[in-house]
Amino acid sequence: MDAKIEKSLIKAAQRGDNSALAQLLQQHYHFLRSYLIKITMNKQLAEDLTQETMLRTIQKIQLYQHKAKFSSWLIQIGTNLYLDDLRRKKTETKWQLQEQARQSLKWQLQSREMEWSDTLDALSHISEAGRIAIVLKHYYGYSYDEIGQLLAIPSGTVKSRVSNGLKELRKELLQNEEA
Amino acid sequence: MKKRNQSQQEESLLKEDSEQDIYELYSSLQQLEQGLAEESPDLHWFEARVVEGKQQVKKTRKRSLVLFCSIATILLFSFGLMLVSNPLYYLIIQIGGLLILPLVLLDGHKRRGDY
Known about the structure:
The structure holds two protein chains of two kinds.
Chain A lengths: L2 H12 L3 H23 L2 H18 L9 H19 L2 H21 L6 H8 L2 H12 L4 H8 L3 H24 L1
Helix pairs in contact in A: 1-2, 2-3, 2-4, 2-7, 3-4, 6-9, 7-9, 8-9
Chain B lengths: L1 H34 L7 H43 L1 H26 L3
């Protein structure tokens, strides 16, 4: 979307224009949903979080201050909601749910004749913090400072999360190869 | 010299490995995105969600306002009663409140998370 059009839509939405807000949400829906699928590796959870993020956006649109891209603001809200969800779930339940979600995601990809690669399998096994940092850095191309701002952590912590995440990923890939 | 050459070779191999990993990661994620892509719902669906969301906000605000008014009434009534019956306790609570106020304000700023 053109930056100028987006800015005018945001301003109209902040003035209370429902149609402008609906257009903004529609334009970013696909981006937000696919980001959440990548960090959660769980389609159902990603869709629930997308709905919840949209609701938060409707409630908090007045707080958006144009300092960062609107899409980055959505990423920030979505990531925080995912981290809250993780804190609420017990470790054992979390593991079981993640395993079911992984199988379901694999099946859905394969049913569309697409490959569930070893890398995706390894990515779904690493820690959530590492996965979020890796996806933001190496898929969306955010800098360490930008990720630090999004996640409200120092950029040094982001660097170590990316590096540890990649190490975990390599370890998982190696284990898969050996198996 | 030989050791340095060896470590440089190892470093460049590691870098190549890492670049390869990142390339594979990127293409796998791209494939995942393409594989699970779905069309966005139409604009009417989003408009309905916006209206629902705003109604929910209104409800929450009303509930918070009622709660705030009820607590304020109870507090004012209790403090008024305390002021008449035991002014010293009243003074101690007021001073304590003034000391806590900056901490509460600082915490509020941190939690708001404006972006």
